[in-house]
Amino acid sequence: MNTLIMKKEPSQFDKDTKFIDVALLSLNDLYLLRHAVSRGLITGYDDGTFKPEGELTRAEAAAIIQSCLTKNLNTYYL
Predict the structure, then answer these.
(1) Residue 43 above 80 pLDDT?
(2) Distance CA 20, CA 70 (A)
(3) What residues have CB less than 8 Å from 33, skipping those under 6 apart?
(4) Which of 4, 27, 53, 69 has the most CB atoms around its CB within 10 Å?
(5) Cα–Cα distance between 53 and 4 in angstroms, integer?
(6) Given this model, what pLDDT does residue 36 score?
(7) Do residues 13 and 6 make contact, with C-beta atoms less than 8 angstroms apart?
(8) pLDDT at 6 over 50
């Protein structure tokens, strides 16, 4: 299956995610990231990065799962 991945220049959309290292993400990835951040499911790192190419640790995965379980996901349609 072929997938169209659109790359773009940094924009206001990047700034809305508050992360300084997401300029190379596809538009679809940015949309999903912004959605998760706006719902409080992902917060990123203290230095203002998201590290999209980094590996997720067990502790980070547990924090995301805990965020999902403590939110009313029926409201968010994840």
Answers:
(1) yes
(2) 27
(3) 17, 19, 22, 25, 42, 50
(4) 27
(5) 20
(6) 87
(7) no
(8) no
Question: Quick one: three-class SS letters along the chain?
Answer: CCCCCCCCCCCHHHHHHCCCCCCCCCHHHHHHHHHHHHCCCCCCCCCCCCCCCCCCCHHHHHHHHHHHHHCCHHHHCC
The span from the CA of 20 to the CA of 67, in Å, is: 23
Distance CA 58, CA 28 (A): 25
- Which amino acid, residue 57? T
Determine the pLDDT at residue 4. Answer: 44
70 has a pLDDT exceeding 90: no
Q: Is the pLDDT of residue 2 over 50?
A: no
